[in-house]
Amino acid sequence: MVCFDVFNGDADGLCALHQLRLAEPLDAQLVTGVKRDIALLGRVDAAKNDRVTVLDISLDKNRDDLLRLLDAGAKITYFDHHFAGDIPENANLDTHIDLAADVCSSLLVNRYLQGRFLPWAVVAAFGDNLHDAARLAAVPLELNETALAQLCTLGECLNYNAYGVSEDDLYFHPGALYRRMQPFSDPFAFIAEDDVFVTLNAGMYDDLTQAHAVSAESKTACAALFQLPNAAWARRVSGVFGNELARTFPERAHAISMPLDDGSYRISVRAPLARKQGADVLCRQFPSGGGRAAAAGINALPEEQMTAFVSAFQHQYEVSL
Ligand SMILES: [Mn+2]
After folding, report:
1. Domain check: are 172 and 245 in the same one?
2. How remote is the CA of residue 18 from the centroid of ligand 1, in Å?
3. What's the CA-to-centroid distance between 289 and ligand 1, angstroms?
4. Has residue 209 been placed in a domain?
5. How far is the CA of 47 from the centre of ligand 1 (A)?
6. Which range, of 91-95, 109-113, 273-277, averages the lowest pLDDT?
7. How many angstroms is it from 67 CA to the middle of ligand 1?
8. Is residue 207 part of a domain?
9. How far is the CA of 196 from the centre of ligand 1 (A)?
């Protein structure tokens, strides 16, 4: 029997897997990548009775490969909070999928494990910019503000590490980062004893400082669009920058665009935190778009569709007022 652990390379994917494997150790092949690299099941070649665990990637975006693996007789466990579409009925498929705006995959794993590694789920919820949900989940831990802020910064650092167009943009390959986390059942020990935290926190600070110098390309009371350059720092920081804007201006939607080498644009959209709606619907109108209601994106928007995107973005959030 071969085992595969397939996970999104962001904070949520990492912490979901970490909690599960702390509870149920398993020697599995890791399948992961940058945050936007979500067609991960396509890389899995599993046979009858092989075990595949899938974390924090859309079932809908992996449907063909999921069906292929089920046909091959693999046993699949799936935790996620992205758009799933119809969930196939199959005795070999065990799903824990919840699209509520205030859950993330790590909170679903935490629920499944009845809170055994709750601090890591809190880290992930902060990483997915679910600050209210993170604080609520953290109540039983009885942490002071300083400790909560540390878990928050760790979540942001792990999330920050996953952005980037290719793995070359990242400080740590997500698989290597998971291996660094693996010995630590306590995130505070990880923060104190492994230099991952210091490296990522310093990198995030530098990249954010550059982002803060960029002014909005277009801005209304309801929606603001920022254009970052085609540079490694911008590719790394786009998600964290978008989350920060969303928290600073909770009534406003945000889009961040970045030119790619092929002339297309990478777009990240954050719905207003006060109304976590519509980002997925907006992005799915364009080729390679997807995500969640609160946070979504377009992997490669053709340049000629940029004008259409800007008006759809403004329309989406003007009318929802
Ligand atoms: Mn997630």
Report:
1. no
2. 14
3. 16
4. no
5. 28
6. 273-277
7. 22
8. no
9. 21
CA of 81 to the centre of ligand 1 (A): 7
Q: Based on the domain organization, do 265 and 184 belong to the same domain?
A: no
CA of residue 128 to ligand 1 center, whole Å: 6
Expressed in angstroms and rounded, the spacing between residue 256 Cα and the centre of ligand 1 is: 19
Residues 301-313: pLDDT tens digits?
999 999 999 999 9
- Check whether residue 13 and residue 34 sit in a common domain: yes
| Shared domain check, 98 and 234 | no
CA of 304 to the centre of ligand 1 (A): 30
Total domains in the fold of the chain: 2
Domain interval for residue 96 = 3-202
Model-level pTM?
0.90
SS3 string of the chain?
Answer: CCEEEEECCCHHHHHHHHHHHHHCCCCCEEECCCCCCCCHHHHCCCCCCCEEEEECCCCHHHHHHHHHHHHCCCEEEEEECCCCCCCCCCCCEEEEECCCCCCCHHHHHHHHCCCCCHHHHHHHHHHCCCHHHHHHHHHHHCCCHHHHHHHHHHHHHHHHHHCCCCHHHCCCCHHHHHHHHCCCCCHHHHHHHCCHHHHHHHHHHHHHHHHHCCCCCEECCCEEEEECCCCHHHHHHHHHHHHHHHHHCCCCEEEEEEECCCCCEEEEEECCCCCCCCHHHHHHCCCCEEECCCEEEEEEECHHHHHHHHHHHHHHHHCCC
